[in-house]
Fold:
Amino acid sequence: MLGSKNEKGQATIEFALALPLLVIFVMLIAQFSIVARQQLALWEVARNAARYASVSPDPQLAAQEIATQNGFPASAVVATNSDGVTRVSITFKENTSLPLLGPFIPSLTLRAHVAMLTEP
Structure:
């Protein structure tokens, strides 16, 4: 009976020591998921902006319109049309949004570049 009581206390202490590491690990996975989702959204917006810009007489304005409709700032978009190819680049700074991890994880700069043939 004495061994059982000491082992029970040992398990509690081990759990108390491991719990903060487990919580941090779960929060890091959540932050990674948020950044990955934002990168996928950025690629989707860049592709849609390039598609819209390739048929527009003003590709910069068209790409900015698509970006702002999807929650990205217009200043983050650069669209060019040369040699029959429309190129759209979007650069967005993603801030870490989870509590406790924000000061330890630097903000990330996400980029998406898409090139599409210009439609006549």
